[in-house]
Write a structure and sequence with these properties.
This protein is of the alpha/beta class and 304 residues long. The chain folds into two domains: 192 residues, Periplasmic binding protein-like II (D-Maltodextrin-Binding Protein, domain 2, 3-Layer(aba) Sandwich); 98 residues, Periplasmic binding protein-like II (D-Maltodextrin-Binding Protein, domain 2), CATH 3.40.190.10. Helices cover 37% and strands 22% of the residues. Strands 3, 4, 5, 8, 11, 12 and 13 form a seven-stranded mixed sheet that branches. Strands 1-2 form a two-stranded antiparallel sheet. It is globular and about 55 Å long. The N and C termini lie far apart (45 Å).
Protein backbone atom coordinates (compact mmCIF):
# COMPACT_ATOMS: atom_id res chain seq x y z
CA UNK A 1 0.00 0.00 0.00
CA UNK A 2 1.19 3.56 -0.70
CA UNK A 3 1.96 6.14 1.96
CA UNK A 4 -0.97 7.54 3.91
CA UNK A 5 -1.12 10.65 1.73
CA UNK A 6 -0.52 8.90 -1.58
CA UNK A 7 -3.06 6.09 -1.71
CA UNK A 8 -3.67 4.52 -5.12
CA UNK A 9 -7.02 3.52 -6.63
CA UNK A 10 -6.21 -0.10 -5.76
CA UNK A 11 -5.44 0.87 -2.14
CA UNK A 12 -8.77 2.67 -1.75
CA UNK A 13 -10.70 -0.11 -3.49
CA UNK A 14 -9.24 -2.51 -0.93
CA UNK A 15 -10.10 -0.22 2.00
CA UNK A 16 -13.72 0.18 0.85
CA UNK A 17 -14.02 -3.40 -0.43
CA UNK A 18 -15.30 -2.34 -3.86
CA UNK A 19 -13.99 -2.65 -7.42
CA UNK A 20 -11.58 -0.17 -9.01
CA UNK A 21 -14.29 0.78 -11.51
CA UNK A 22 -16.54 1.69 -8.60
CA UNK A 23 -13.84 3.99 -7.24
CA UNK A 24 -13.52 5.75 -10.60
CA UNK A 25 -17.29 6.18 -10.65
CA UNK A 26 -17.26 7.70 -7.17
CA UNK A 27 -14.57 10.15 -8.27
CA UNK A 28 -16.61 11.14 -11.32
CA UNK A 29 -19.71 11.69 -9.16
CA UNK A 30 -17.78 13.86 -6.72
CA UNK A 31 -18.30 11.40 -3.85
CA UNK A 32 -14.57 10.77 -3.30
CA UNK A 33 -11.96 13.53 -3.30
CA UNK A 34 -8.78 12.76 -5.24
CA UNK A 35 -5.84 14.43 -6.92
CA UNK A 36 -3.54 13.59 -9.81
CA UNK A 37 0.22 13.25 -10.05
CA UNK A 38 0.76 13.21 -13.78
CA UNK A 39 -1.72 10.61 -15.03
CA UNK A 40 -1.96 8.75 -11.72
CA UNK A 41 -4.93 9.23 -9.41
CA UNK A 42 -4.02 9.53 -5.73
CA UNK A 43 -5.93 9.97 -2.44
CA UNK A 44 -5.12 11.13 1.06
CA UNK A 45 -6.06 8.79 3.89
CA UNK A 46 -7.76 11.63 5.78
CA UNK A 47 -10.21 12.13 2.91
CA UNK A 48 -10.99 8.40 2.74
CA UNK A 49 -11.50 8.20 6.50
CA UNK A 50 -13.82 11.22 6.32
CA UNK A 51 -15.84 9.50 3.60
CA UNK A 52 -16.14 6.34 5.72
CA UNK A 53 -17.27 8.32 8.76
CA UNK A 54 -19.84 10.24 6.73
CA UNK A 55 -21.18 7.00 5.25
CA UNK A 56 -21.60 5.50 8.71
CA UNK A 57 -23.82 8.41 9.63
CA UNK A 58 -25.93 7.73 6.55
CA UNK A 59 -25.42 11.18 5.07
CA UNK A 60 -22.77 13.74 4.24
CA UNK A 61 -21.87 16.11 7.03
CA UNK A 62 -23.14 19.62 6.61
CA UNK A 63 -20.54 22.25 5.76
CA UNK A 64 -20.28 23.70 9.22
CA UNK A 65 -20.03 20.23 10.81
CA UNK A 66 -17.10 19.34 8.57
CA UNK A 67 -15.30 22.55 9.47
CA UNK A 68 -16.08 22.16 13.17
CA UNK A 69 -14.59 18.67 13.14
CA UNK A 70 -11.41 19.47 11.23
CA UNK A 71 -10.38 22.80 12.71
CA UNK A 72 -9.53 21.17 16.05
CA UNK A 73 -7.35 18.53 14.44
CA UNK A 74 -5.03 20.44 12.11
CA UNK A 75 -4.37 23.29 9.75
CA UNK A 76 -7.44 23.61 7.51
CA UNK A 77 -7.29 24.71 3.86
CA UNK A 78 -10.69 25.59 2.46
CA UNK A 79 -11.65 25.22 -1.21
CA UNK A 80 -12.43 22.73 -3.93
CA UNK A 81 -9.61 22.78 -6.50
CA UNK A 82 -7.22 19.84 -6.79
CA UNK A 83 -4.31 22.24 -6.37
CA UNK A 84 -5.27 22.51 -2.69
CA UNK A 85 -5.27 18.72 -2.28
CA UNK A 86 -1.73 18.52 -3.58
CA UNK A 87 -0.67 21.55 -1.53
CA UNK A 88 -2.00 19.91 1.64
CA UNK A 89 0.00 16.78 0.85
CA UNK A 90 3.19 18.81 0.44
CA UNK A 91 2.47 20.40 3.82
CA UNK A 92 1.98 17.04 5.51
CA UNK A 93 5.39 16.00 4.21
CA UNK A 94 6.77 18.96 6.18
CA UNK A 95 5.04 17.86 9.34
CA UNK A 96 2.04 20.20 9.09
CA UNK A 97 -1.27 18.37 9.82
CA UNK A 98 -2.98 19.98 6.82
CA UNK A 99 -6.65 19.10 6.37
CA UNK A 100 -9.20 20.03 3.72
CA UNK A 101 -12.67 21.57 3.85
CA UNK A 102 -14.39 21.27 0.47
CA UNK A 103 -16.66 24.31 0.30
CA UNK A 104 -17.03 27.18 -2.15
CA UNK A 105 -15.32 30.56 -2.19
CA UNK A 106 -17.99 32.64 -0.45
CA UNK A 107 -18.44 30.15 2.39
CA UNK A 108 -14.65 29.79 2.65
CA UNK A 109 -14.29 33.47 3.47
CA UNK A 110 -17.15 33.30 5.97
CA UNK A 111 -15.45 30.33 7.64
CA UNK A 112 -12.17 32.27 7.82
CA UNK A 113 -13.99 35.22 9.40
CA UNK A 114 -15.38 32.86 12.05
CA UNK A 115 -11.93 31.28 12.64
CA UNK A 116 -13.23 27.91 11.51
CA UNK A 117 -10.47 27.48 8.90
CA UNK A 118 -6.90 28.73 8.62
CA UNK A 119 -6.74 29.50 4.89
CA UNK A 120 -9.60 30.27 2.52
CA UNK A 121 -9.44 30.13 -1.26
CA UNK A 122 -11.48 32.39 -3.50
CA UNK A 123 -12.26 33.11 -7.15
CA UNK A 124 -15.07 35.63 -6.71
CA UNK A 125 -15.65 38.15 -9.49
CA UNK A 126 -16.78 41.66 -8.56
CA UNK A 127 -18.70 43.20 -11.47
CA UNK A 128 -18.43 46.78 -10.16
CA UNK A 129 -14.62 46.80 -10.38
CA UNK A 130 -14.09 43.88 -12.80
CA UNK A 131 -11.61 42.43 -10.31
CA UNK A 132 -11.37 39.22 -8.31
CA UNK A 133 -11.53 38.51 -4.59
CA UNK A 134 -10.19 41.69 -2.94
CA UNK A 135 -13.61 43.47 -2.74
CA UNK A 136 -15.13 40.32 -1.21
CA UNK A 137 -12.33 39.95 1.35
CA UNK A 138 -12.83 43.54 2.45
CA UNK A 139 -16.58 43.04 2.92
CA UNK A 140 -16.73 39.49 4.28
CA UNK A 141 -13.83 39.93 6.73
CA UNK A 142 -14.72 43.35 8.20
CA UNK A 143 -12.15 44.57 10.69
CA UNK A 144 -9.92 41.54 10.13
CA UNK A 145 -6.33 42.29 9.02
CA UNK A 146 -5.83 39.82 6.18
CA UNK A 147 -3.37 38.82 3.47
CA UNK A 148 -4.38 37.84 -0.07
CA UNK A 149 -1.79 35.71 -1.89
CA UNK A 150 -2.11 34.74 -5.54
CA UNK A 151 -2.23 31.02 -6.29
CA UNK A 152 -3.06 30.68 -9.99
CA UNK A 153 -5.13 31.93 -12.90
CA UNK A 154 -7.67 29.72 -14.65
CA UNK A 155 -10.01 30.12 -17.60
CA UNK A 156 -13.71 30.04 -16.78
CA UNK A 157 -16.28 29.35 -19.45
CA UNK A 158 -19.20 27.24 -20.65
CA UNK A 159 -19.27 23.45 -20.69
CA UNK A 160 -21.23 22.46 -23.80
CA UNK A 161 -21.75 19.20 -25.68
CA UNK A 162 -19.19 18.32 -28.31
CA UNK A 163 -19.69 20.47 -31.37
CA UNK A 164 -21.74 22.98 -29.32
CA UNK A 165 -25.03 21.96 -31.02
CA UNK A 166 -27.02 24.75 -29.30
CA UNK A 167 -24.45 27.39 -30.36
CA UNK A 168 -24.08 28.79 -26.85
CA UNK A 169 -21.49 31.57 -27.00
CA UNK A 170 -22.39 34.29 -24.49
CA UNK A 171 -24.43 35.04 -21.36
CA UNK A 172 -27.43 36.21 -23.37
CA UNK A 173 -27.96 32.64 -24.57
CA UNK A 174 -29.10 31.68 -21.07
CA UNK A 175 -32.30 33.62 -21.76
CA UNK A 176 -33.28 31.29 -24.61
CA UNK A 177 -36.24 28.94 -24.19
CA UNK A 178 -34.34 25.96 -25.64
CA UNK A 179 -31.50 26.00 -23.08
CA UNK A 180 -31.30 23.75 -20.02
CA UNK A 181 -28.45 24.23 -17.57
CA UNK A 182 -27.00 22.53 -14.51
CA UNK A 183 -25.76 24.87 -11.78
CA UNK A 184 -23.10 25.04 -9.10
CA UNK A 185 -24.05 25.57 -5.48
CA UNK A 186 -24.58 29.04 -4.02
CA UNK A 187 -21.28 30.58 -2.93
CA UNK A 188 -19.13 28.78 -5.50
CA UNK A 189 -17.00 31.14 -7.58
CA UNK A 190 -18.50 29.78 -10.80
CA UNK A 191 -22.00 30.43 -9.44
CA UNK A 192 -21.12 34.02 -8.51
CA UNK A 193 -19.74 34.62 -12.02
CA UNK A 194 -22.95 33.23 -13.52
CA UNK A 195 -25.34 35.15 -11.27
CA UNK A 196 -23.55 38.47 -11.72
CA UNK A 197 -23.63 38.14 -15.49
CA UNK A 198 -27.27 37.08 -15.50
CA UNK A 199 -28.07 40.17 -13.46
CA UNK A 200 -26.15 42.38 -15.87
CA UNK A 201 -27.96 40.71 -18.79
CA UNK A 202 -31.40 41.20 -17.21
CA UNK A 203 -32.04 37.45 -16.98
CA UNK A 204 -33.73 35.88 -13.96
CA UNK A 205 -32.54 32.48 -12.78
CA UNK A 206 -36.13 31.34 -12.28
CA UNK A 207 -36.65 31.62 -16.03
CA UNK A 208 -33.81 29.22 -16.90
CA UNK A 209 -34.57 25.50 -17.02
CA UNK A 210 -32.24 23.66 -14.65
CA UNK A 211 -31.09 26.76 -12.75
CA UNK A 212 -32.17 25.20 -9.43
CA UNK A 213 -30.37 21.92 -10.21
CA UNK A 214 -27.31 22.53 -7.99
CA UNK A 215 -24.24 20.28 -7.92
CA UNK A 216 -21.17 20.76 -5.70
CA UNK A 217 -18.70 18.85 -7.89
CA UNK A 218 -16.90 20.43 -10.86
CA UNK A 219 -16.59 17.08 -12.62
CA UNK A 220 -20.20 16.11 -12.08
CA UNK A 221 -21.64 19.22 -13.76
CA UNK A 222 -19.28 18.65 -16.69
CA UNK A 223 -20.35 15.00 -16.93
CA UNK A 224 -24.04 15.94 -16.87
CA UNK A 225 -23.54 18.21 -19.88
CA UNK A 226 -21.45 15.60 -21.70
CA UNK A 227 -24.20 13.02 -21.15
CA UNK A 228 -26.81 15.29 -22.77
CA UNK A 229 -28.85 15.82 -19.58
CA UNK A 230 -28.13 19.56 -19.74
CA UNK A 231 -26.98 21.95 -22.46
CA UNK A 232 -24.59 24.12 -20.48
CA UNK A 233 -22.79 24.61 -17.17
CA UNK A 234 -20.10 26.95 -15.85
CA UNK A 235 -16.62 25.67 -15.05
CA UNK A 236 -12.91 25.76 -15.79
CA UNK A 237 -11.04 24.74 -18.90
CA UNK A 238 -9.01 22.19 -16.92
CA UNK A 239 -12.13 20.25 -15.94
CA UNK A 240 -13.42 20.33 -19.51
CA UNK A 241 -10.22 18.61 -20.66
CA UNK A 242 -10.92 15.68 -18.36
CA UNK A 243 -14.39 14.79 -19.66
CA UNK A 244 -15.00 13.10 -23.01
CA UNK A 245 -17.75 14.43 -25.25
CA UNK A 246 -17.39 17.98 -23.95
CA UNK A 247 -16.41 21.26 -25.59
CA UNK A 248 -15.41 24.44 -23.80
CA UNK A 249 -16.32 28.04 -24.61
CA UNK A 250 -13.81 30.33 -22.86
CA UNK A 251 -15.37 33.38 -21.23
CA UNK A 252 -13.09 34.89 -18.61
CA UNK A 253 -9.65 34.58 -17.07
CA UNK A 254 -10.08 34.38 -13.32
CA UNK A 255 -7.73 34.82 -10.38
CA UNK A 256 -7.67 32.07 -7.76
CA UNK A 257 -6.21 33.39 -4.50
CA UNK A 258 -5.51 32.27 -0.95
CA UNK A 259 -6.56 34.37 2.05
CA UNK A 260 -5.38 34.13 5.66
CA UNK A 261 -5.43 36.29 8.76
CA UNK A 262 -2.39 38.57 9.07
CA UNK A 263 -1.98 37.54 12.70
CA UNK A 264 -1.16 34.03 11.45
CA UNK A 265 1.39 35.13 8.85
CA UNK A 266 4.50 34.23 10.89
CA UNK A 267 3.24 30.85 12.07
CA UNK A 268 5.21 27.82 10.89
CA UNK A 269 2.17 26.38 9.13
CA UNK A 270 1.54 29.54 7.11
CA UNK A 271 5.21 30.02 6.28
CA UNK A 272 5.41 26.39 5.14
CA UNK A 273 2.43 26.95 2.82
CA UNK A 274 4.01 30.09 1.34
CA UNK A 275 7.38 28.38 0.94
CA UNK A 276 5.76 25.49 -0.94
CA UNK A 277 3.72 27.54 -3.41
CA UNK A 278 6.77 29.73 -4.11
CA UNK A 279 9.00 26.73 -4.73
CA UNK A 280 10.14 25.77 -8.22
CA UNK A 281 9.14 22.12 -7.67
CA UNK A 282 5.51 22.95 -6.84
CA UNK A 283 5.14 25.44 -9.67
CA UNK A 284 6.69 23.08 -12.20
CA UNK A 285 4.31 20.30 -11.16
CA UNK A 286 1.31 22.45 -12.06
CA UNK A 287 2.79 23.89 -15.22
CA UNK A 288 3.06 20.28 -16.42
CA UNK A 289 -0.50 19.36 -15.41
CA UNK A 290 -1.94 22.14 -17.58
CA UNK A 291 -4.88 24.47 -17.03
CA UNK A 292 -2.99 26.53 -14.43
CA UNK A 293 -1.07 29.78 -14.92
CA UNK A 294 1.72 29.73 -12.34
CA UNK A 295 3.42 33.00 -13.38
CA UNK A 296 2.59 34.96 -10.19
CA UNK A 297 2.06 32.04 -7.82
CA UNK A 298 2.92 33.00 -4.24
CA UNK A 299 2.94 36.77 -4.77
CA UNK A 300 1.16 38.94 -2.22
CA UNK A 301 -1.80 40.65 -3.87
CA UNK A 302 -2.69 42.91 -0.95
CA UNK A 303 -2.46 43.17 2.85
CA UNK A 304 -5.18 44.87 4.85
Amino acid sequence: MGTKNELSVQDVAGMLKVSKSKIYGMIKDGVLQSYRVGRKVRFSENDIRAYIQNSKKGNSLQKQEVIHTTQKEGFVLCGQDIILDILSNYMRQRGVPALRAYIGSYDSLIALYRKQVNVASAHLWDSDTDTYNVPYVRRLLPGIPAVVVHLTCRIQGFFVAQGNPKKIVDWGDFGRDDITMVNREQGAGSRVLLDENLRLSGIFGKDIAGYDHEIQSHLTVASIVASGKADVAIGTEKIARQVEGLDFVPIKKERYDLVFRREDEEKYETQSLLSIIRSQAFQEEFSQIGGYDTADMGKVVVEF
